[in-house]
Amino acid sequence: MENDFSAGAERPASTRILAIDYGSRRIGLAVTDELGVTAQGLPTLHRSNKRNDFDHLRRTVKQYAVSEIVVGLPLRMSGETGTQSDKVEQFAEALRSRFKLPVHLFDERLTSVEANRVLDETEMSGRRRKEVVDQLAAVLILQAFLDYRTHRD
To answer: Which of 22, 31, 16, 25 is nearest to 139 (CA)?
Structure first.
């Protein structure tokens, strides 16, 4: 696969972070504003195959001048990993390899639950809801990551 960030290529200075809610059918996406302060949802990526998925992500990284990526890590309520966690870790490693950017795994427990709770309040229809729940989960992952970073320092 072509790497747009090969040696010698100038990457624009940016503090934008891309968040990914990785799923088997859809990938929820969110990105920070240019100052790296707030999370904004992007259209959900409907997965087709690995090549198309990474091409879409490559274009997103380039379009938003992303400097790092955070991927939601689905842990069990006990905090232990499972099959889906292993898949996410493999996906994160593929992102690191392809984009040569820092990729952080961040606990996403309850983000889908919270996204569905928020959407319950809007009384959104089933089909539209599927489109938005992954995007909203990515926004929640990113906002939680930003809050964690702010309070960690």
So the answer is: 31
